[in-house]
Amino acid sequence: MPQYLRLLGIGGIGIIRMSGDKCFEILDKIFKPKNQEKIENIKGYTIKYGYIVENGKKVDEVLVSYFKSPKSYTTENMCEINTHGGNIIVRKILELCLKNGANLAEPGEFTKRAFLNGRIDLLQAESVIDVINAKSERELNTGIKQLEGVLSNKIKEIKQQILDVMVNVDVSIDYPEYDVEDVTNTEILNMLDNVQKKLRLLEKSFDNGKLIKEGIKTAIIGKPNAGKSSLLNYILKEERAIVTEYEGTTRDTIEEFANIEGVPLKLIDTAGIRNAKDEVEIIGIKKSREIATTADLIIAIFDASKNLTDEDLEILEIIKNKKVIILLNKVDLNSVLKENDIIFKGISKYVFNISILKNIGLDKLNNAISEMFNFNEINLDNEVIITNLRHKNLITRAIDNVKKAEKAVKENTPIDIIAIFIKDILEDLGNITGESVTDDIINEIFAKFCLGK
Question: Mind listing the pLDDT tens digit for each residue in 131-148?
Answer without folding.
Answer: 888 888 888 888 899 999
